[in-house]
Amino acid sequence: xxxxxxxxxxxxxxxxxxxxxxxxxxxxxxxxxxxxxxxxxxxxxxxxxxxxxxxxxxxxxxxxxxxxxxxxxxxxxxxxxxxxxxxxxxxxxxxxxxxxxxxxxxxxxxxxxxxxxxxxxxxxxxxxxxxxxxxxxxxxxxxxxxxxxxxxxxxxxxxxxxxxxxxxxxxxxxxxxxxxxxxxxxxx
Length: 188
Ligand code: HEM
Description:
The chain has six helices and four strands, in the order H-H-H-H-H-E-E-H-E-E. By secondary structure, it is α+β, with helices and mostly antiparallel strands. It has two domains: 3-60; 91-180, H-NOX domain. Strand 3 and strand 4 (174-180) form a beta hairpin.
């Protein structure tokens, strides 16, 4: 995955446990690099290894790290020049999710090696929808939950997410039930 992702993992570890903890995390992960170039693509193995190692050293289940990473990703990217891009694809949870594939497709123009996930929205209601998530990568559904919660924060409409059915031998995607609260005055 692009270095931007590994950099965000590094940030999360330093924020939670400091520089020394990060040194141990990337050392124990067997990842040589201490710095990652945002626009360069690294092996998925290095990203999974960093997450595994962070989970062991911070004594947090991998699912928790992925969820926190997802929540943080929204503010992390917004603070690094991607806020306007996000604004351009919707200013509420529902319309943003409708456009998420197009947003990743736009990113692929600048990041040609991007292998983005795929999302489809179903059963769209006033403040709920069903979201299906396809990816070539296993085990990232907790990250999706965090991402959706992060979007809720971004739009000032807190989001709840329930994993309705997980990817399995019979099903090639995860399915989430997503609900959000009405916008609070003064928010997005
Ligand atoms: C401007 C904001 C965003 C940027 C810059 C961005 C960029 C990226 C990048 C660079 C990757 C790594 C994939 C690769 O290198 O092949 C990625 C993966 C991913 N993105 Fe985004 N993304 C953004 C917002 C979102 C949002 C809002 C969601 C979902 C609600 C999302 C869902 C995912 C997921 C689940 C992955 C993991 C890869 C996978 O499932 O295969 N992204 N994104």
